[in-house]
Amino acid sequence: MKRLAIFLADGFEEIEGLTVVDLCRRAGLDITMVSIGETVTVNGSHGIVVTADRTLADLDFESVEMLILPGGKAGTVNLENCAPLMEQIDRFYQAGKYVAAICAAPSILAHRGILKGRRACCYPTFEAHLTAGGAEVTREPAVRSDTVITGRGMGCSVPFGLAVVAACCGQEKADAIAEQIVYG
Fold it and tell me: What superfamily does domain 3-174 belong to in CATH?
């Protein structure tokens, strides 16, 4: 079974984070919610408090195959300011492992040079970050370019989550989950 980790920082967009977790768990994937703070309690951008499964300090990155970054303006800033996480994002990308980001968070991947020459999407007001990072910006709900998955925003959380499922389990499984949740 594939193991994934989604990183939650204060100010994260709750729907973007939790939708991915829900869809992955429906698909039978082992996805861990990781707080980048000192405690497992994380405050979402809309006042929803979420209890993560563990903290960043307690995560064994060697056991994980994909790193996922939800957006939210403040959450994205907090994720990008987390040096240990950024080191792992770079390491995963360089090793050919999956990295995924939605909404404002693809800007992090652009800043790190990960989107250069790739098709990618993000929240519309962050598109300049992707362009500056050498990405071909699309308006698709979610885009997979080799081992990089990006999503546009909260309203695209389901297509983004299904793209994560498809990358791990195949398109057939993602289609089955979409049918199960009456999507599309």
Answer: Class I glutamine amidotransferase (GATase) domain (3.40.50.880)
